Amino acid sequence: MPKEKVVVTGASGIIAGVLLPALRERYDLTLLDTRAHNRDGEEVEGVEIVDLLDRDRDRYRHFFSGADAVVHCAYYRIHDQGDDVYFASELENLQLTYNVYQVAWEERLRRVVAASTNHAADFYENYALDGAAPMVTPDQNASDNWYGWGKIAFEQIGQVFASGVTHGGRPLENVQIRIGGPRETDVAAAPLGDLRRMRRALAVYISQRDMAQLFIKSIETADIRDALGVPFQIFYGISANPHAIWSIANARGVIGYAPQDNSEERFSDLIQAHMKAAGVS
Q1: CB atoms within 10 A of CB 271
Q2: pTM value surpassing 0.85
């Protein structure tokens, strides 16, 4: 049986780097980025150099032609330039996202699975960490920073395409994954004895194999329609963390996400060190 053809945007980035080992085994990949090397300076095999900010979609249409799905990880960012430039860079990112979705729709791809972020609900995070608000669910959208605001808009572009209303009634199926912390270093990086920072790091953790499972099931599950019949979902990308403040109930129910790892087991020694430093037995 032939492999599904999947386009990966932002293929030299951090998120794609976590996913690529599993995706390479399973799919026929087309890898797109503006650079051929990752942040460590290592060459990413097979990357095609392309500028997806270019509004002339005919320049890169051939990369999408005949594909089944897109894993959209590309992100345009300018660092440390102040609010005005940061806001402007988010607008550019939204244009990039629109370009990817539009060419995917034009080329009749089935689905986009997009790398969003837990920061799309940053407004609620501190309240949840302090116990002043319940667990954050995927239908909550509010941020207190431009990055989170941009990702809310990023997700809503996907909702427009999934509805099909602006595209002649033909939807582009869409999954937005609000990725947590795909790193093994966050708990250790928290100041020793800072239990709040430790809890946040434990809450956000997602292992490499859990993230791969979540994306693969988001690509392959046949029916992702919501309660209104729209093929659009937002899932939180975390492992089965006992300290979680974000809900993965809908990911479990819709696509059968079954995370194999949890941060409390993975970082048990570090948890004990933090608690000892904080004077908690």
Answers
A1: 19
A2: yes
